[in-house]
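ugh ok fine here u go
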Amino acid sequence: MSTVRIICKTDGLCESAFDGGPQTPGGVATYGFFICDDEGRPIAKDSGVIGEGAEMNHMVAEYEAVLQALGYLLQEKRTKEPVIVQNDNQQLVLEMKGEREFERGLHESRYYQAKRLTSLFASICYKKVDREIIWEADCLTWKEYRRYLSQRHRLI
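structure:
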């Protein structure tokens, strides 16, 4: 009998809050995650807005997606099951695998939090994949971004 693996599809986004505005850093950062088993059966999904401004960039968003997904699995006490974290950002994957020296930046505290959470899992690996593989998480990031912009325009 083979063990079912948990697949965490994670993605982050940082885009301009207004026409001609800054993207990364300085834009609106959002995250999304879609967790399923290795047969594709959904387990959980979530997304949200991290923030807007000088403290936001694409790496903050990518790491926040990982933190949220791992946090969900911890809360559900699923740390004994094999986990594969999929992300389309090579820097994040290489940093988390220890194959690239950590590049200091706005995402520094999130990197250390992700390393700490990773250590709580019995079997976890990080895998760089194409955006098409994590399309569910990608869609969730864009949904949050559009929702944020639409609410922002209502306030003006």
